[in-house]
Design a protein that fits this description.
33% strand
C-alpha cells in the first residue's frame, strides 16, 4: 500500500522536533523516530491540521470552531477580545476545559493577566497538547499558565471566593459532560468570580432548528446562579455574562 507523502509543517521551539503532515494526521519526528499524533483511550483522539493550525478531534468530531474563521486561533482571540480585558492591571483568569489550550494561551498574552488556571480532565488530551507545537506555552515553567488535571466540576470547588476576574467555559456537548452545565456548577463558578468578573460560555449550535434552544437554557441557568448582562454572540456560538 502506498504511503501518503508528508509535507513539512513546522519545528518545535527548540528545533528538536520536526512536524510533518499528510493532510489527515500530524507527525512528530526526532532522533528517536517518528510518532503519529493520535491515540485511543476509551475514545479516539488525534491532531489534525486545519488552515495551518493543529486542532483536536475526538471520535472524528472537531473540538475547535473553525467555520467562518481564518484559523482556529482567530476564534480564541475573538473570545478573549470579547471579554474586554483591560490593557493594564493584575487579573486572574480561569479556562475550565483546556483542550489544546489556544484560548488559555490567548488570555495569557494580555499584559493585564498575571495568571491563567486551565483545567483538563483527559490524560489523552494533555498528552497530545504536550506534543502539539502550538501548545508549548501551556507548559513553560516560567509562564503565566497553570495546568490542573481533573474535571472543572470538581476543581472549581477548591478555588477561593472571588478568585477570578475572567472565566472561559468551553465544555464538551451536554451529553458528554452534563455536570458542566449543572446549576450547582454555575453557582460554584459564580462564587469563584470576583465582583465585575466576565464570563464566556460556549454552547454551540446543538438543537438549533429542532425546537430546542440550548443558549436560552444555559442563559436561564446562569441567571439563576447570579450572573447578569447575559447575551448570546452568534459568531462565537456562545454566551457572555458578568457578575455585578
Amino acid at each position: 500500500m502506498a504511503t501518503k507523502k508528508r509535507d513539512f509543517f513546522c519545528k518545535s521551539a527548540d528545533g528538536s522536533i520536526t512536524y510533518t503532515t499528510d493532510g489527515s494526521f500530524l507527525y512528530a519526528e526526532s532522533g528517536s523516530g517518528v510518532v503519529r499524533l493520535d491515540l485511543f483511550a476509551g475514545h479516539y483522539y488525534k491532531l489534525r491540521p486545519i488552515k495551518g493550525v493543529p486542532i483536536l478531534e475526538v471520535d472524528g468530531l472537531r473540538m475547535q470552531l473553525v467555520k467562518d474563521f481564518k484559523t482556529p486561533l482567530d476564534y480564541s482571540k475573538e473570545v478573549v477580545k470579547g471579554l474586554g480585558i483591560p490593557k493594564t492591571g493584575q487579573f486572574s483568569a480561569l479556562d475550565t476545559c483546556m483542550g489544546l489550550g489556544y484560548t488559555a494561551i490567548a488570555a495569557s498574552e494580555s499584559p493585564a493577566i498575571r495568571i491563567v488556571v486551565t483545567c483538563e480532565v483527559s490524560e489523552a488530551v494533555i498528552t497530545l497538547a504536550q506534543w502539539n507545537p502550538l501548545s508549548e506555552p501551556l507548559f513553560k515553567k516560567d509562564g503565566k499558565i497553570i495546568v490542573m488535571k481533573g474535571s472543572a466540576a470538581e476543581l472549581v470547588k477548591g478555588f477561593a471566593d472571588s478568585m477570578f476576574s475572567f472565566v472561559i467555559h468551553d465544555p464538551p456537548r451536554f451529553t458528554h459532560a452534563p455536570e458542566l452545565y449543572s446549576p450547582s456548577f454555575y453557582k460554584e463558578l459564580f462564587r469563584a468570580c470576583g465582583k465585575g468578573a466576565r464570563l464566556f460560555h460556549y454552547v454551540g449550535s446543538l438543537g438549533k432548528g429542532k425546537g430546542r434552544h440550548i443558549d436560552r437554557e444555559v442563559g436561564k441557568r446562569l441567571s439563576e446562579a447570579g450572573f447578569s448582562s447575559i447575551r448570546y454572540a452568534p459568531r462565537l456560538q456562545g454566551i457572555f455574562a458578568c457578575k455585578r
